[in-house]
Structure formats: structure tokens, C-alpha cells
Records
---
Amino acid sequence: DVKVTQSSRYLVKRTGEKVFLECVQDMDHENMFWYRQDPGLGLRLIYFSYDVKMKEKGDIPEGYSVSREKKERFSLILESASTNQTSMYLCASSLGAGRVSTDTQYFGPGTRLTVL
Amino acid sequence: RKEVEQDPGPFNVPEGATVAFNCTYSNSASQSFFWYRQDCRKEPKLLMSVYSSGNEDGRFTAQLNRASQYISLLIRDSKLSDSATYLCVVTMNLPGTYKYIFGTGTRLKVLA
């Protein structure tokens, strides 16, 4: 079974803080993704990575950055947290190869981030 | 127009009923199609892929209509445990990249 884990289930931070969300997958997947999910808006892609040290912007990258130093780990960074970044953050991975993929995505349990 | 559209529901159905959801997509270049299930406060999980010829998995049947650009999910003999939000997912290969596009989901409540 594919396992995708996220560092925290719940996180509360203050405006202006730097926030790190970690995601680890154990199936040697090439592709990893960060989404946020908000009521009525569904899942929106923030960033994705199709290889170590590679990253591409998704639909809403503003205010976020990512890091993929190792294949199994994909980190999402909020440089200066703001209240509009309060959301559920979901990490996902897929087998994929290169930059073309139609694989199944496997999700982590999510991190519910509240920015005060 | 949204790239992937779903009726948000909720669909309230009695146990044992048959219920169907549709999902429309706007880009005819869409490649692959999936239904995911998401329980309250949990992560989405793959329910089934949708193949051109249609496919069935137990009580669940998925269909693809490329001409009209929609996919459907039929659930027969609904169980209380089927209560969840069902997300439609469409993927597209684009020049130099690719993307998954999620619908906002259709909420199903199966009532005793």
C-alpha cells in the first residue's frame, strides 16, 4: 500500500510566521503535489514536482514555495503566513515518469492550518 | 466556465436506492478520468478510473461520454457507508507539462 504522510494534522500559526509543511511518500513515486482545499473551491494545485530538485507552479503558487531535496520528501513553505492561507493542505504523490502522467494520485491525511 | 463541473448536491437518498452523478469537463483534450471519494475531514481516495468502454466495480459503474464531454458514476443498492463527497478528476497532457483538475465534488447522503 502506498503511504503518504504529512508532518502535522493540525497547525496553528501567527500572521507573518514562516511555516513548513512536510510530506513523505514511501513508494518511490516520481511525482509529488501540494494542494489546498477550501469549501466551495475544491482542490487547487499550489506546486508540483516531477523529479528531485524540480518544481513547477500550479494554479495558485503566490505566497508559497517548495523544496524537493530527496525523492521521497516534498516540503511546502509559507514564507510569511497570512490569514487567507488558513486552509486544509493536502499532499499527493503519483508513480509517473517525467512530465507526462495520467497516474492515480495518492493523498496524505492533510494538514489543517489556521493562521491567526 | 469551470474546467470541471459537478452538481454540489447534497443528494439525499434512502438505503437501497440507485443514484447517479454526472461531471462535465470543458477541454476536449482531456486524457484520463477518475472518480475519487472523500469522507468528511479525510483525504480523497481513488474510487475508480473511468475507461472509454465504461467499467464496473461491484455496485459502482463509471461511464465516459467523450462526444458530450461528461463522465458519470452510478451507485446501485446504496449503503449508509456510501455517504461521502465524490470528486471527479480529469487529467490533461499539455505541451511540456500535465495537470490534474478536480471538480468541487458532489455530496451524497444515504439515509436509513
---
Amino acid sequence: QVQLVESGGGVVQPGMSLRLSCAASGFTFTIYSMQWVRQAPGKGLEWVALISDDGSNKLYADSVKGRITISRDTSKNTLYLQMNSLRAEDTAMYYCARDNTVTHALDLWGQGTMVIVSS
Amino acid sequence: QSVLTQPPSVSGAPGQRVTISCTGSSSNIGAGYDVHWYQQFPGTAPKLLIYANRYRPSGVPDRFSASKSGISASLVITGLQAEDEAEYYCQSHDSSLSGPKVFGTGTKVSVL
């Protein structure tokens, strides 16, 4: 079954760290760039980060640059998002998504994992 | 800080036609980058609805269509149905420093 399954969300205090995971299955993970997209409660979608198929190229939104690192482990078919120095404004549902190799549309999404930053 | 602007809401009666606009700038849609559209129901993940300006993935009803011109794009729902009530987002690439991928502000479609 072609799917993405996120995990690792939770409630953390400001300044703390969290690592999100996204397990891919049912497709050849290594040929796709992958992205993280987040959505604050009641708000719209916000692009967060992108990693190329081979992991050599990483791009970040200005809002998270320097605090968040995207990575991937091809041996585990898993995408990660390491989030440090978390702020209240990072509170959101975090989705991983597959970047279509031809169109670069996000053609497969996970169900999301919720991150709440609160003291 | 979306750089693609959509109307907050549109509505229509069943069977009617509704149009959602997505207005960008010369650094994204106007630069020739493709526009994609996503549909999101409450409490669920977004789903790809239209890719590369006008193409529907397998399984998407043909009452959904889209186009792009200049710095704008549009999504049209022809023959609106109750199950189309959802949030819709456009997305494109942006060459500015704010990040390569940008989403629209989102539009809530309500079926009267």
C-alpha cells in the first residue's frame, strides 16, 4: 500500500526539541524528493522544508531556518524533521508529502502528526 | 505569509459553477511556474486535486478544472455538489528568498 505515516508529535515546552518521522511504504522512496508542510490550528498550509531524492539538497522556509533540519534514511525509507528551539508559533499539524518527480506537485500526503509547543 | 492570494470563501447552490482565484506575482505564477491545487476536508490531510495548471489525477471528477494566465490561476467547479464543500489551496514555486514552495491562503467552498 502506497502511504506515508508520520509520528513523533506531542506536547513540548518552548525551547525544547522534537524529531518527527515519516515512514514511506509501497513506492520507491529513493527516487522522490520529499517535503514537510505544516498547518497551524485553523490556519492555512505552510511549506516548511524540502529534501532532494538523494538527500544532497535541502531547502527551508525562512520561518524555520536555523532551527529545523530535514533528513532522510534510505535504509529505513523514512523522512525526518528535527525541530530545535521550538516556539509557540511552531504549534501545528505537520504533514510529510511526496514531491512528484515530473510535476513537483505533492501527490501523496501522510495523515499528519500534531506538535503543540506550550508551557 | 502566503504570497498567493485566494478569496477566503466562495459559495454556491448545488449544480452551480464556482470559481476560485489564486493571484501571485512575477516571482511565482507570473514567472511561468506550474500551479497545483489541493482539496482538504476538515480534520484530514490535503489531497492533490489538479497538477501542472490543468491536469486531474486519476479519480478526480471532471467537474473540477483549472487554468493559469499571467500572474493568476483559477480553479472551477462545475456542477457543484454537497461533497465538494471543503478548503482549497493553490500552490506554486517561488524564486524569491522566502522559500521555493508557496501555498495560497486557502478558500472555503460552501454548498448552500
---
Amino acid sequence: QKEVEQNSGPLSVPEGAIASLNCTYSDRGSQSFFWYRQYSGKSPELIMFIYSNGDKEDGRFTAQLNKASQYVSLLIRDSQPSDSATYLCAVRYGGSQGNLIFGKGTKLSVKP
Amino acid sequence: DGGITQSPKYLFRKEGQNVTLSCEQNLNHDAMYWYRQDPGQGLRLIYYSQIVNDFQKGDIAEGYSVSREKKESFPLTVTSAQKNPTAFYLCASSTRGRATNTEAFFGQGTRLTVV
């Protein structure tokens, strides 16, 4: 059974702080990893993807991948109240035509 | 504008009734997916289709059916055999190529409630 695990939270951080969201996955053969943001009642929207070990930065967001340890993380710098949402980690198994397996998501709350 | 359109946004179903959720995309994507999301839960895969006239069961296909007669369309029918259909249903599509970063794009979702 291929699994993607996330801490459900809620994770609460003050405005301007760094929020750190973590995700672990079970299949060493996984090749690509995605972070989605989902506001309450809305559909998920893609924030970042990563498929090479190391860090990938895009604005205030940094995705980190460690395949040896089978975890992927998302850092949000200078957190804003508008970042308050549920963050879903997704892992693509089985190559480029494999399906996405989603974690249950971590709820982030950024306090003004 | 390119995107994925789901309709209706809200749907109410009576006990024993079949209902069909619409999903249309104009992104020229080959692959389309249906997910179900329950409160506090992640997305669970119902059905997926990698190409026209072909589709595969996901993790929770029982009580659901799909068709893929056109590349742009992937409707989902929730049958009376689905005993707990109240949920948020999400349709997604993606490219189907060699690149590993083939992310999925989502429609706005349909919230189905049994009355």
C-alpha cells in the first residue's frame, strides 16, 4: 500500500515567521512530489513540484526533497495570514504515467 | 481561458437516485481523474483515464461509474450502490508524457449531499 503521511495539525505560526510542513512517503521508487494549497471549501491549487534531491525555491516557498530519508518538506518564509490553508502533499508513483497519491493535509494557521 | 470546469457546484441526491457530475477540460490533457474528499481527509482516487475510451478503477471505485468518450469530458455517475456519497468531488487532469513533473490541475469541485 503506497502511503503519504502528513501531520494533520493545526500548525499555528505568528505572522512573519517560517512555517515548516513535512511529508513522508512509503515507496522509494517515487519520482515526483507536489505541494498543493487548499482553502476551505475550494479545490487544491499547485504551489510547487520537486523531483530532484535538494532545495527548490520559488518566492517565499522552498520545497526540500530527501529521497534517502523519503521525506519532502515545504517551508513558507514570512508567513502571512493569507497563507492560512490546508497544505496537501502529493507523490506520483509509477513514473510519469503513475497516479498521484495525496496525504491528508496539514492545516496551517498564521496569526496576525 | 484554459481550465477544468465542473458542474454543478452543489448537488443534492435523494436516497436510491443516480446522479452524474460533469467535468470538462480544454487543456488538451490526455489524463483525467476523479477524487473524493471527506472532511478532514485527503483526496482518494475514484477513477482515472489516461486516454479516450479507456479508464481504470482507483482505490474507491465501488458505487461509481465513468465514461471517457471524448478527450475533453470525463463524467462521473454516483449510483445508488454508493451508500455514503456525501462528499466533495474533485475532477483533475494532467499531461501524459515523459516528464516527471506532470502536475494535476483541479476543477472547482462539486459538493454532493444526500437528502
